[in-house]
Amino acid sequence: MTLARPLFALAVLLALPAPLQAGELCRVADPTGTPLNVRTAPNFKIVGALRNGTRVEILQVVRGDDGKQWAFIADAADGRAHGWVFRSYLDCR
Q1: Which domains does the chain have, with CATH numbers?
Q2: Percent composition of the chain: helix, strand, coil (DSSP 3-state, to 5)
Q3: pLDDT class of 65 with cuts at 50, 70, 90
Q4: H helices within the chain, ranges in order?
């Protein structure tokens, strides 16, 4: 049973369309003013949170079945992967 969730998450990721963009440097800009949830996979378990203003790099962007874009991000300074967040909550100007 403990292997079922990771396998399901992998199946969801494989079913998502190809990446849209990668390599952008951005800042967390959650309009709710609360920390941005970081997840294991798009719309899956929350594993952390990032404060507004945190600098990140987008490694991959996918569009879910609902049309929302999700970004797999890493720390902009050291490249350490964080996880998946809503793409629209990143300011990449």
Answers
A1: 4-91 (2.30.30.170)
A2: 15, 40, 45
A3: confident
A4: 4-15
Q: Is 28 left (phi over 0), alpha (psi -120 to 50) or beta?
A: beta
pLDDT given at position 21: 57
Contact status, residue 53 vs residue 23, Cβ threshold 8 Å = no
Q: Model pTM?
A: 0.75
Paired residues of 69 in beta bridges? 63
Q: CA quadruple 27, 24, 5, 64: dihedral positive or negative?
A: positive
Give 17's DSSP letter: P
